Amino acid sequence: MLTAIPEMIATVLIVDAPSWSMWIIYTLIIVFGALVIAFMIRKRMRDAAYDQRVLREKVRDKTRELEMEKERAEQSERVKEQFLANMSHEIRTPLNAILGMTRLLLDKEPRNDQFKYLNSIKHASDNLLVIINDILDLSKIEAGKINFERIPFRLRNELQAVVDTVKVNADDKGLALKLDIADAVPDSLSGDPYRLNQILLNLVGNAIKFTEKGSVTIKAELLSSDNNKVDMQFSVIDTGIGIAKDKLDYIFDMFTQESSSTTRKFGGTGLGLAICKKLVELQGGEIAVSSTVGTGSQFKFRISYDKAEESADTGEEKSTGTQRNLSNLKILLAEDNEFNQMVAVDTLEGAIPGAKVDVAQNGKLAVEMVIANDYDLVLMDIQMPEMDGHEATRTIRSNTDARVNSIPIIAMTASVIKAEVDKCFESGMNEFVGKPFNVEELLDKIAKTISPL
Q1: Multiple choice CATH, 321-450, 3.40.50.2300, 3.30.365.10, 3.30.70.2210, 3.30.565.10
Q2: Alpha carbon 4 to its chain's center
Q3: Of 74-83, 242-251, 280-289, 292-301, which gets the smallest average pLDDT?
Q4: pTM (2 decimals)?
């Protein structure tokens, strides 16, 4: 038995010799495969790292490109805004003189032939001012910089104010101007009365312009109501020339009027209705038109408002000529334009009994005169030589004398875009009046500023 063992071992070694060779081959194959896989994984990793690097570079380049594009767009917007501000200022400054002097002459009971010419100047200037305001409003809307108030107001007062504003134009054409407010319409609301006024004035102004005979009606109706909100519908109905059916689809487009002959005959830029549509839609409302050529047109728009408490301060108590009690005021006017000086001085001394108005040609002189004299009020222009209105106001406010640094200052400038208005308040001014100025608004602001509630 023992002698058989070496023979068995020899036999196993002889039989398993090929198996050892196969194991070596298998091992080499496995090692090679592992190396190949490792190589491929490493290559994939290198390729992925390369792709990521390329992608990062592309993203970085694209980001840089987008940032440059954004910067160019912002720069373009700034240039556009500055251009509009400059254009508005440069047109409003002489327009203030034209409208102011025309108003002063109309107050002096001119002859009939003089009245006709003066009235024509006034209407032409008013139309130019509307165009300027439309362009500025459109720019603000496109830039998303238009803001809406949410303040309490009395609806019937606002609607009556629209009627009072356009009544002269309707009377000149012999048109009946009607206001129809449904009994169910609440009076105390909360929202933006100024934009409502703007929309209605635009629509009613168009209705009067395109109506030769008959009437223009403003209607207010309550569509729905709950505990907190009311859904209002306003309509402006006229008996004018009407709009062709195929023109109704794009009557609210910018720079669009019913026809080129309409533009030649009635004038206008075609911006008014586009602005109305934007203002309505930005408040969550809708506007529509129906019309028949030769019969008239009807513009309807819907806006929702919050309900306001009946006891809330809705701005009903506004200053009037008898409530202002303005007299014997000593006023400093800081204004470098001699025509606007003339308009402001004559207007103030004519409207305020016993008023005395001194004039400073620039901001530096205005500061010196405020320090040297006792004034009740300063009317401050902004763009002036030597020292502008902002710097002059800051200098006055930083004075250590309480008599000087507390003097009421009202900005009275042709720069009316919101950024400029905000800058006036930031520099320390109490109120703002845009040029061309409305006399009643100016007197109200003066009364409010020198006798704060």
Answers
A1: 3.40.50.2300
A2: 112
A3: 74-83
A4: 0.63
